[in-house]
Each structure stands twice: as C-alpha cells, then as structure tokens.
Amino acid sequence: MPAGRPGPAAQSARRPPPPLPLLLLCVLGAPRAGSGADTAVISPQDPTLLIGSSLQATCSVHGDPPGATAEGLYWTLNGRRLPRELSRVLNASTLALALANLNGSRQQSGDNLVCHARDGSILAGSCLYVGLPPEKPFNISCWSKNMKDLTCRWTPGAQGETFLHTNYSLKYKLRWYGQDNTCEEYHTVGPHSCHIPKDLALFTPYEIWVEATNRLGSARSDVLTLDILDVVTTDPPPDVHVSRVGGLEDQLSVRWVSPPALKDFLFQAKYQIRYRVEDSVDWKVVDDVSNQTSCRLAGLKPGTVYFVQVRCNPFGIYGSKKAGIWSEWSHPTAASTPRSGEDPVAPGGSASPQGHTGI
C-alpha cells in the first residue's frame, strides 16, 4: 500500500526550526502559526519525475505575512538549505527554484522541498517523487505445503530499486475459467512473496502472475502455469533417530518416519541425509537413499559426535509426472560412534533408540 502522507507541518513561532531529519515523511504544506490559512504556495505541488529530470518550481507568498517577501525566502531539500544561486526572484512575492539532473528520492514517501521565510519559519512544502517506473517482475516460484495452500515468491525486476514506493500484487486464476483473484498475505517468506492459505483447486492448472505499480507506471510478469499437485512440499521427516551399530566404530544407523500429512495420498518419496562432525560446518550429503526410511552411515571416525538431518521430496502425487520439491531439513539429531576398543554395551554406547540424542 502506498505510504500515508502527513498533514501540514507546524511552524515555529519566532525562531528557526531545527534541521529536519532526512527520513521524515514528506511535508505537504505549512500554515503560518495562528493564521489558520496558508501563507504561500509551491508550484508544482508534489511532482513525480524521472531520475535525471529538471525541476522548475516557484514559491509564491500571498497575504501580508511580516518579512515574507521573495527577497527573504529560501529553500530547503530534506532539511538542507539549497544554495542561493539555484534561486531567483521573479517578483516581490515569488521566488523561483531550478534543480537539474535530479537523483532518485532519498525516501519512498517523497523528498521534502520546503519554502521558508527569512526567520526560518515554514511557509509551504511539497513532496518530490523522483525515481523509475517498475520493471517486469520475473522468476516466480511457488510451492504448496501438503496440498493445503500455495506460497509464491518472485524477483522484482533487473534493477529492483525504483526509489519510489512500488506495490506488488500477486494475481491468480484457474486456467480455463474463473475470475482473477488477488493474494492478500504478503511478505510471508521474504519481501517479495505472498501466501494463499485456502480454497485452492486440485487437478486444474492455475495461471499466476505479478503486477508492479508505482507513480511512474506499471509492469506485469510473464504468466506462470502450474498444477498444485506438481509443486507439493511437506514437513521434514519426523522422529529421526540415530544410533550406533553394535560395536562398529565407523558406522551409525539412521531411521525416520514418512511425513504424516501425506499418508492418505498416493505419492512416492525420495529422501536425502546429510551429516557433519560436531566441530565442523561442512555437511556431507547422501543422495541415494531412495524411498527407504532407514540408512546406515559408514566410513565414520571412531569416538566422534555426528549431527544428522533428513529431508523429503514427495513426488508422483496422484500420478503427477513433475519432480517434487524438497522439504526443509529435519532438526539436527546427534550421536557418537564408539571409540576404538570400547565395549558396545558400555555407558554411552547403547545402540537402542533410547540412547539417541536430539538437538
């Protein structure tokens, strides 16, 4: 949603105001304290300009505020006083300003261009919106957790930064019929993402796209077509147990359970295991676990603590031909291999599930 804009800024009665912080919301104008009416007008008001553009602005005083003549006026931009040579007096009540080769706005709510009286009080303000139109979003990817929802994320264009507030809307509809729908739960897995929690159809493709809009234009991504059954992921495998294999000092046994959320659906599963030693950050991955729910790790170091994780790829759901999407890794589980010559039934060397350590 576009950022809200504040009301008129209050004027300091007789002394210059303190410098304005750069990240204030843009001021839109300022009444003279106690007058109940604006004492000056900036034109153009709240312009939107491309980066590199020039701006010709005027501040015109009306009424008869003491000391508020064009000769005594000056400009600030984001709280910084602009050099006098950028201004020129057009007549007794109007001061002009010329800005060239404008940079992108410092804040998405608009930069503060303010006209001041000689004593520093604010007479009028305008927002400058300087930026770029949005670029075409791309790289849309989506996944469904246990076929109950859909989450999508995207990349916001080649450059990304527009210097203006840019709104992204994820749209979707059934491919051959139905009306356009707009996703409502944004930023669920990052700044450019959205979550559709329910009311999704199976066995029918969806068309999904992203629209980007700001003050300078709009852009629309290519349409992604997908079937929910082709983008299913699931929770990590639960109940991961790691245990010793008798007195074998170079092996550990790993067992786990298939994701329970998919137990009532026709699907196949692939599993991966990764493990590392306690004092390392480097994981070794075992890819060839297939659809088994147990695996033996061999070639390990004796008397060493290993951390183990498992993840699942559910594919072929209801006959889908597409590859599945890997789940997150399970919570690490740890166990140690026996030391050389250690009694396999000695304390700490039990091969039973009760001897596993969950981390």
Number of continuous helical runs: 0
Give the beta-strand count. Answer: 27
Determine the strand fraction and express it as a percent band. Answer: 35-45%
Q: What structural class should be given to the helix and strand makeup?
A: mainly beta
Give the domain tally: 3
Return the CATH topology of the largest domain. Immunoglobulin-like
How much helicity do the residues have? under 10%
Mean pLDDT: 83
Low-confidence stretches: 1-23, 29-37, 345-359
Fourth-level CATH superfamily of the largest domain:
Immunoglobulins
CATH architecture of the largest domain: Sandwich
Report strand order across the widest sheet.
2-9-8-4-5
Using the alpha-carbon principal axes, give the shape: elongated
Major beta sheet summary: 5 strands, mixed
Order of helices and strands: EEEEEEEEEEEEEEEEEEEEEEEEEEE
* Spatial gap, N to C terminus: 42 Å
Rg over CA atoms: 32 Å
Please report the first level of CATH classification, the CATH class of the largest domain: Mainly Beta
